[in-house]
Amino acid sequence: MISWRLETYGELASTSDLCTARAKAGEPEGLAILAYKQTAGRGSRGRSWQAPEGNLNLSILLRPTLPAALAGFYSLLAGIVAAEAIESFFAPPTMLKWPNDVLLGGAKLAGVLIDAAPSGQNLDWLVIGIGMNLRSAPQIPGRATTSLAAHGLTLAALDAANAILSGFSRWHGAGPEAISDAWLNRAHPLGTKLEIKSAHATQTGTFAGLSPAGELLLQSNNRIHQISTGDVMLGLA
Fold first, then answer.
1. Integer Cα distance of 186 and 138 in angstroms
2. How far apart are CA 121 and CA 107, in angstroms?
3. Residues 6+ apart with CB under 8 A from 81
4. Hey, which CATH number is domain 193-234, 2.40.10, 2.30.30, 1.25.40, 1.20.1280?
5. What is the pLDDT of residues 26-83, one digit of tens each?
6. What region holds the BPL/LPL catalytic domain (predicted)?
């Protein structure tokens, strides 16, 4: 069980930046930082993340005793926990998209940002940032986004944060296999057509599962490719 220490702020530049600074200063596991508004939120692959008031901006600090190579599983786990938190309040089912998106009605509802530092071969600390569109959805070129409010649903940021923290406590100590199985149960089915864009190339194929390290497996041209980073678009192959 994790003993959470939730700090709330009216406004921050970035919950993950503050949580990371505290991690580097030696803060114990269990710190959680919630901001009702972010002015310099960060998304994946260096993007900015719009975080107007009313949405969820939450970052947590963990110090798991795991090999650093398995840090990516926490991105998958965060998606599971976020989906479970939403569904504890509302019936509409969510879907997960590798590696860090929670979808509602096929559009992005929430995303995850991971910051981590190794200590030898293991992790020293891990900061998980979760942004969720509760009241409004930012515009992302080429991507469909949505909010709970767009579906007629109302959820306060504090209630969402507490549900997420409870979820991480329930999953505390879960291994990669359990996380992988739970993620696959909520994800796009095997065989789903995918297009994956990285900084250097675009690959197309079909979803073939997850590697033992949590990488996406893409079947393309009679080969299985392990994908460790990239933007995944569904149904475009």
1. 24
2. 37
3. 164, 167, 168, 171
4. 2.30.30
5. 999 999 999 999 987 665 544 555 567 899 999 999 999 889 888 889 999 999 999 9
6. 1-176
Please indicate, yes or no, whether the overall pTM of this predicted structure exceeds 0.85.
yes
Helix (H, G, I), strand (E, B) or coil at 99: coil
Domain coordinates in residue numbering, the chain: 5-186, 193-234
- Would you say 191 and 207 are in contact if contact means Cβ atoms under 8 Å apart? yes
Q: Which class is 5-186 in CATH?
A: alpha beta
CB contact set of 85 (below 8 Å; sequence gap of 6+):
160, 163, 164, 166, 167
Between the alpha carbon of residue 160 and those of residues 21, 127, 133, 167, 209, the distances in Å are 24, 18, 11, 11, 29
Task: Tell me phi and psi for residue 99, to 5 degrees.
Answer: -100, -15
Query: What residues are paired with 48 via a beta bridge?
Result: 42
